[in-house]
Amino acid sequence: MEQTWRWFGPGRDPISLEQVREAGATGIVSALHQIPGGTPWTPEAVNERKAMIEAAGLRWSVVESIPVTNGIKSRSADWRKDVEAWKDSLRALGKAGIRTVCYNFMPIVDWTRTDLAWQMPSGLALRFDIVDFAAYDVFALKRAKAEGDYPPDVIAAARERFATISEARKAELEKIILAGLPGSDFAYDRAKFLDLLKQYAGMGPEDLFQSLTEFLDEIVPVAEEFDINLGIHADDPPFPLFGLPRIVSTAEDVAALLDARDSRSNGLTFCVGSYGSRADNDLVAMIRAFAPRLHFMHLRNVTIEAPGIFHEDEHLQGGGDMVAIVAAVMAEEKRRAAEGRADAQIPMRPDHGHLLSADPMRNTNPGYSYVGRLKGLAELRGVMRAVEALGATA
Ligand code: DNO
Q1: 82, 69 Cβ separation under 8 angstroms
Q2: 8-23 pLDDT tens trace
Q3: Number of helices (H) and strands (E), helices first, in the chain?
Q4: 109 phi and psi, to 5 degrees?
Q5: Dihedral of CA 197/201/204/205: which sign?
Q6: Would residue 118 count as lying in a domain?
Q7: Is 295 a catalytic residue?
Q8: End of a domain among 197, 217, 237?
Q9: CA 312, CA 379: separation in Å to the nearest integer?
Q10: Same domain, 354 and 215
Q11: Do 133 and 263 belong together in one domain?
C-alpha cells in the first residue's frame, strides 16, 4: 500500500509537509477545503495545491473529498448546478493527473462523535455514545418525533444523562455535533440545521439510494474518461443519525451501490473504523468480497463498548484484526500487479490517532494529531513489511 497522510492545506493544518515527509509518508491526501461545495475547483487552484505538495518532495495521491452538497443528496433545485460543479472539479483533477477521489453521501452531517478527548492509557481518543447523541437530539435540539428513532432504553438513559450533565457539556455536545469535525463541509447553527432537515423530509433509504445512483450516472463516465478511481466513504457512524437515512453502512449496502453502476471507477474508500463500528460487519470478508473496487484504505480500529457506543482504539488494537486486514488488501495488490494494472498499489492512510501528552502540537485538528498518527503509520508499516517478508498475502 502507498503510505499517505491527510493534510488539510495551508492555514488549516498546523503540521507541515516537511513533518509529514519525516513521518515516512510519500503521498498526500488533501482537498481544496477553502472552496465551498457547489463551486467548481479551477485547474489553477488544483495545480497550485499540487505544486505545493510536490515542492515538499511528496505526491498528491488522493483527493479527500470533493463535497457532495445537500442539494445533490436531497435532489433540490440546485441539483443540476451542483452536479456540474462536481464534474468540473473532477475534470480539473483528472487533467492534473490525480487518479483517486474520495467522497461521501451522508445527509447533512459527515462523520460524527460525542467526545473528542476521551482519556485512554494511550492518550486522548475520539468516542461516540448514542446516549449522549440522543440526549442532544431529543432533549436539547427537540427534533420533532426524535424519540421514535431510538430504542426505549436509549431514550431512558438519555433522559437521565441530560438531567445530570452541565450546561457547559450541553453546549460542548452541540458544538461537537453541529459545528462539524475536520474535513466536514459544514458548520451549522440550530436554525440552519433544522431548516436543512426539512429539505430531507419524507426521504427514506430508497430515496437516498436513488439520489446516489443518479449521481453515479453523472460522475462515473467522467471518472472513466480520466481513469479516476472514485471511492465512496463509509457512513461514520454506520447507522442513521437524526432520523436521516444512511446507505453506506453494511456489506449489503456496499454490494448494492457497486452493482448499481458496474464500473471499476465506482469504488470504495474502505474505512476500517467506520465499518468496524458495527458488530455485524465482517471486515476481512468485506475486503475480500469487494477487493477489485477498493481504491483507498482508511486504517484505524475501534472498540465497541455496547451497541451504538464505541471509541477509537490504537491502530493495532480494537475489534478489527488489522494484520488480517492488511494481508487481505496486499493480496489484492498482488493480483492487480499480476494483471499489470497501473493502480496496483492502493493508497492507505493511518486514519486518526490519539493525542499523546508528548505531542508538542496540541492544536491539531481532532483525530489528526502528529505523534499519534506517526505512531499508527509506523505500526502499520511494520505490519506491511512483515506480511511482505513472510509472503503472507493470503
Ligand atoms: C474523517 C474522515 C471523513 C471523510 C469524509 C469523506 O476523519 O474520514 O471526514 O473525509 O467522510 O468524504
Answers
A1: yes
A2: 999 999 999 999 999 9
A3: 14, 12
A4: -105, 150
A5: negative
A6: no
A7: no
A8: 197
A9: 16
A10: yes
A11: no
The answer to whether 36 and 42 are in contact (CB under 8 A) is no
Mark whether 165 and 128 lie in a shared domain. Answer: yes
So what's the pLDDT on residue 179?
A: 81
Number of the ligand 1 atom closest to the C-alpha atom of 352: 7
In this structure, the residues whose C-beta lies within 6 A of any atom of ligand 1 are 64-65, 102-104, 110-111, 183-184, 233, 271, 298, 367
Residues 97 and 158 in one domain: no
311 belongs to the catalytic site: no
383 plus 247 within the same structural domain: yes
Domain count, the chain: 2
Last residue of a domain, one of 197, 226, 256: 197
Domain containing 191 equals: 124-197
Single-letter residue type at 333: E
Distance CA 300, CA 275 (A): 10
In-domain check, residue 151: yes
Smallest Cα–Cα separation from 254: which of 237, 270, 272? Answer: 270
Mean pLDDT to the nearest integer, 352-359: 96
Ligand 1, atom 8, residue with closest C-alpha: 111
Cα angle: 10, vertex 183, 165; to 5 degrees: 120
The cell numbers describing 44, all together, are: 489553477
* Distance from Cα 6 to the centre of ligand 1, integer Å: 10
Q: How far apart are CA 347 and CA 59, in angstroms?
A: 11
Atom of ligand 1 nearest to the CA of 103: 12
Give residue-wise pLDDT tens across range 192-244. Answer: 999 999 999 999 999 999 999 999 999 999 999 999 999 999 999 999 999 99
The catalytic residue among 137, 233, 236, 311 is: 233
- Ligand 1 pocket test target in 29, 89, 104 with most atoms within 8 Å of CB: 104
